[in-house]
Design goal:
The chain is 52% helix and 16% strand. It is of the alpha+beta class. The strands form three sheets. It has a three-stranded antiparallel beta sheet with strand order 2-3-4. Strands 6-7-8 form a three-stranded antiparallel beta sheet. A hairpin with a 2-residue loop joins β3 and β4. α3 packs parallel to α5. The chain is flat, with a radius of gyration of 27 Å.
């Protein structure tokens, strides 16, 4: 029986470390940015924030989180007092996305050991590693979806009226989608609004992408492991078969 060919996996520890650091920067920086948003729109309305021209309106920026006061000849953001926080958050998010996807896509491949970026790895270990990545990313997606889409799952046509005692004045659900989890609600006054903030619906849909990439890696690892075990059982059966009796 010929020796089993060596298997390997890319060394992705550095990518995961960089993604973890970037994730921490995004979480902590976003928390600080959210604190800076408190009552910033009221400060603009009261004239405490100086801008170019008169105040037209106030809008909310999803990422980096900020309250933006729109004046006649420009905008002033609640992040302006933080200096480099906005660019830092954008850079950290870019590093997080690049490193996360590079680490997950690397699990699709099975390079031969020998290079500085490859280490020997059994297919059982590969299956365990890809399974862990799939579990973590899949759990994150399901958690976000449960928070943003439970009303749609409970009843999409009546999602807008769930969770409140509206009586005979319940808002109507005009249209809805499951991915992203979103619906348009119309109130009895005729005004319309969105069931979820646009950033929450977009974040939930985007969280499905790393879960899908990790799922592909797990499926490939499971298939290779199954083929290896099937080949091992087949080879063992041939090796242990009794020779025919000599006449």
């Amino acid at each position: 029986m010929s020796p089993r060919p060596p298997h390997g996996g890319y060394r992705t520890g550095g990518l995961w470390a960089a993604a973890g650091i970037a994730f921490g920067v995004v979480v902590i920086g976003s928390g600080a940015a959210l604190l800076s948003m408190l009552e910033y729109d009221e400060r603009c309305a009261q004239g405490l924030v100086q801008g170019p021209g008169g105040l037209l309106r106030t809008r909310y920026q999803a990422f980096p989180p900020a309250t933006v006061c729109v004046f006649e000849r420009g905008e002033v953001s609640s992040l302006d007092d933080w200096g480099v926080l906005g660019p830092l958050l954008r850079l950290a998010l870019a590093v997080l996305v690049v490193c996360l996807f590079a680490a997950l896509v690397a699990e699709w491949f099975e390079p031969r050991p020998g290079g500085p970026w490859v280490r020997p790895m059994s297919r059982a270990e590969k299956l365990s590693r890809t399974g862990t990545a799939f579990f973590v990313t899949g759990s994150a997606f399901l958690t976000l979806y449960a928070l943003a889409g439970w009303k749609l799952l409970a009843g999409p046509s009546s999602a807008c009226s769930r969770g409140g005692d509206w009586g005979s004045h319940a808002p109507r659900t005009l249209e809805y989608s499951f991915l992203p989890p979103q619906a348009t609600c119309q109130f009895t006054s005729g005004l319309t609004s969105r069931l979820n903030p646009d950033w929450a619906a977009a974040l939930t849909a985007q969280a499905a992408v790393p879960a899908l990439v990790a799922g592909i890696g797990f499926a490939l690892a499971w298939r290779r492991r199954r083929e290896e075990r099937r080949g091992a059982y087949g080879g063992a059966g041939v090796a242990t078969a009794a020779p025919p009796d000599a006449l």
